Amino acid sequence: MAFRGAGGRVIAPGADGLPPKIRKAVEQVRRDLSAAPFAAPTADRLRELGLDDRALGAAERSGRLWRVGPGIVLLPDAADTAVELLGELDQPFTTSAARERLGTPRRGAPPLLDRLDKAGRTRRLPDDRREIVR
After folding, report:
1. pLDDT tens across 40-66, in order?
2. What is the Cα–Cα distance from 83 to 87, expressed in whole angstroms?
3. How far is CA 87 from the centre of its chain?
4. Is 10 left (phi over 0), alpha (psi -120 to 50) or beta?
5. What mean pLDDT is reported for the chain?
6. CATH topology of domain 78-132
7. Whether residue 130 has pLDDT greater than 50
């Protein structure tokens, strides 16, 4: 049995290192996001599930969720999916066009696009439009 380290803890194979209560809540968020990948759960929904900042940090470290911004979480592969979908838009594109294409709420698009910019996947232009970096 090969153990691995995560966040200064030793994790058994197949385990994500999350306490059962947090694991169950994270799996619910993942189910919700599988139906609508960019419809980040609201702060109320996260609170209802018992996912505070500390729990969300643990979920991100375990690779189960990706924190895009404060209180905004998506699935870990959301960046790749977003770039693929945004690449289908006429380039350059507006934040509004991105929000519509991704089906993300107004509060979710700017932090997601900022993260894609920082990762070098998109580039913000002087007129506030963006383009995919190829």
Report:
1. 999 999 999 999 999 999 999 999 999
2. 6
3. 18
4. beta
5. 89
6. Arc Repressor Mutant, subunit A (1.10.10)
7. yes
- Is the Cβ–Cβ distance between 6 and 17 less than 8 Å? yes
The closest of 127, 102, 89, 33 to 115, measured between CA atoms, is: 102
Is the pTM value of this prediction over 0.70? yes
Q: Given this model, what pLDDT does residue 16 score? A: 60
Residue 44 parent element (H or E): helix 43-48
- Would you mind telling me the total number of residues written for the chain in this entry? 134
Q: How far is CA 113 from CA 12, 18, 29, 44, 105, in A?
A: 35, 29, 21, 23, 13
Which class for 116: exposed (0-12), middle (13-18), buried (19 or more C-beta within 10 A)?
buried
CATH 1.10.10.10 segments of the chain: 78-132
Name beta bridge partners: 131.
Answer: 123
Q: What are the pLDDT digits (tens) for 30-42?
A: 999 999 999 999 9
Contact 73, 46 (CB under 8 A): yes
- Structure confidence at residue 5 as a pLDDT band (50, 70, 90): very low
